[in-house]
Amino acid sequence: xxxxxxxxxxxxxxxxxxxxxxxxxxxxxxxxxxxxxxxxxxxxxxxxxxxxxxxxxxxxxxxxxxxxxxxxxxxxxxxxxxxxxxxxxxxxxxxxxxxxxxxxxxxxxxxxxxxxxxxxxxxxxxxxxxxxxxxxxxxxxxxxxxxxxxxxxxxxxxxxxxxxxxxxxxxxxxxxxxxxxxxxxxxxxxxxxxxxxxxxxxxxxxxxxxxxxxxxxxxxxxxxxxxxxxxxxxxxxxxxxxxxxxxxxxxxxxxxxxxxxxxxxxxxxxxxxxxxxxxxxxxxxxxxxxxxxxxxxxxxxxxxxxxxxxxxxxxxxxxxxxxxxxxxxxxxxxxxxxxxxxxxxxx
Length: 347
Prior knowledge:
Layout: E1 2-5, E2 10-16, E3 34-38, H1 40-50, E4 55-60, H2 66-73, E5 78-81, E6 88-94, E7 100-103, H3 112-126, E8 131-135, H4 146-153, E9 160-163, H5 166-177, E10 185-186, H6 190-197, H7 201-206, H8 208-220, E11 225-229, E12 235-239, E13 243-247, H9 259-272, H10 277-292, E14 311-315, E15 344-346
Parallel strand pairs: 1-4, 1-8, 2-6, 4-5, 8-9, 9-10, 10-11
Antiparallel strand pairs: 2-3, 6-7, 11-12, 12-13, 13-14, 14-15
């Protein structure tokens, strides 16, 4: 089972614009738009339901909140923790070329009692899990280091994936450098990698070797696996054993909202299936690309995901530089072809 924590959930409303966004103007939309229960952890639980993977979404919500009714209608099992007030509403504006503008609101400040109750609920749920996913921003009132504290509070048997940004991410990284507990998996994007390593995020995203070198600093600090998503440049996967880059298939981008969450789920799904690292990365990038081609925060169905169209290249494990050029890759199993160089795999 994949247990997700969404400490700062939201009802996500998406409005598709008929043209480019113009500040101060009255504009038309192509449809009335739509809304659904969201948040990074909820998105991953939604992907679990679509792929028939057992899941449980832990989050703060009052019993009568329409947010819970939305989860129930989508078939998403939830463990709500009361005391956080109404769930916030986020607005997403999408333009025809795929440009996305998000207006995110904040929930009521989290009290120490709410954080303690969320910790207890998550600890209990984690006992029967394959993965625990800590995802998204923290509500106002929560200390920046709360995710870092959770890493030490969860059962030792729990494998933890972390996907956050800004101060909560910085606190986890600071904890790693101080010898604190490490998540088993981290999923930063290029901007997040640059935030604690310096440098230009755009340059980092465009250069998989640089991104892999940056990700390796987290592995060296104790993180088992780093999945760094690079937008249209795909993603890199770095472990103590190696590094890989995956190029996405050609994709007509409709909305990037939820693409990173889908990528993370794709990786976790590949892990549950016992796939090799390169195949897990291919599935992650295929899920992210499929999500980017869908409107709003739509999570792709497995039938929409095409990992065979993703190209994965092994990077040098020590320096994260491209390995020696590989021979053209056949589409059949490499295990049956001893002459095949496995460093470049087309799926």
